[in-house]
Amino acid sequence: MKTAVVTGGASGIGLGIAQRLRSDGLHVATVDLNPSDDEFAYRADVSDPEEVTAALTAARAALGPVTVLVNAAGVDGFKRFQNISFPEWQRVIEVNLHGVFHTVQAVLPDMLAAGWGRIVNISSSSTHSGQPFMSHYVAAKSAVNGLTKSLALELGPSGITVNAVPPGFIDTPMLRRSEEARRLGGTVEDHIQRTPVRRVGRPEDIAAACAFLISEEAGYITGQILGVNGGRNT
Ligand SMILES: NC(=O)c1ccc[n+]([C@@H]2O[C@H](COP(=O)([O-])OP(=O)(O)OC[C@H]3O[C@@H](n4cnc5c(N)ncnc54)[C@H](O)[C@@H]3O)[C@@H](O)[C@H]2O)c1
Predict the structure, then answer these.
(1) For the whole model, what pTM was predicted?
(2) Ligand 1 centre from 74 Cα, in Å?
(3) Active-site position among 95, 137, 172, 210
(4) Is residue 42 annotated as a catalytic residue, yes or no?
(5) pLDDT tens-digit profile of 100-137?
(6) 182 conformational bin, left if phi > 0, alpha if psi -120 to 50, beta if neither
(7) In Å, what is the CA distance from 70 to each residue of 65, 73, 135, 147, 177?
(8) If you measure from the C-alpha of residue 83 to the centroid of ligand 1, how many angstroms do you get, rounded to a whole number?
(9) 13 lines ligand 1 (CB under 6 A)
(10) Where do the H-state alpha helices sit in the chain?
């Protein structure tokens, strides 16, 4: 049985991915700043390499070598560019980009030893076209897409695939917080009318893409950015 680590697994998209992988028969450990009460839920700030290493060590001891990693932990930000302080800029980059650096570094020894691995990075559909007032977030998520492509080239010969899934408009606490703060330019319902498939996305939609990308049969797919957005971005 394979062991997967899902960051951000206590809420929204990460939670949906953890539930799906568990029901597909994997051992799943979640790593989150605010962990759930699940047995294999570990607390760590993904931007802190020591906390990430400690969480991964505990997960490995409980569930065995980690050969599947899904990076879903993330924070958004919404501010006019000239008003973003440097610490605010740094925090968004540290969590969304450096967090991926730390977790990949922490799991790579297991994947290299196994000669097999699957990494999926959850980026954002905002990377397709940019997003006003989210320059730090879009910069970080665009870097995650670039990192994904480079890692795919480096790690392919070791049996490890690396792909990114940029979600668009998924009904999670993050999206509802944005709606409440009136950052969406309308309600979720308004946006549904502008979405080709006429519904909001669900964590299960992202989980389905991840379940495929980590499967054995997706072994020839690497370095790809697989948009899951109801046709909002093509
Ligand atoms: N919901 C959407 O429409 C949407 C769109 C594009 C991208 N995304 C991305 O999908 C991912 C999941 O988002 P979501 O909508 O489920 O949000 P969410 O806020 O519901 O869940 C994010 C989770 O990440 C955790 N987290 C935040 N900072 C962390 C840190 N420093 N260390 C560890 N864990 C941390 C939170 O505690 C939370 O459990 C994020 O990377 C987000 O940027 C979401």
Answers:
(1) 0.99
(2) 4
(3) 137
(4) no
(5) 999 999 999 999 999 999 999 999 999 999 999 999 99
(6) left
(7) 15, 9, 24, 14, 23
(8) 23
(9) yes
(10) 12-23, 49-63, 86-93, 99-114, 126-129, 135-155, 173-180, 188-193, 203-213
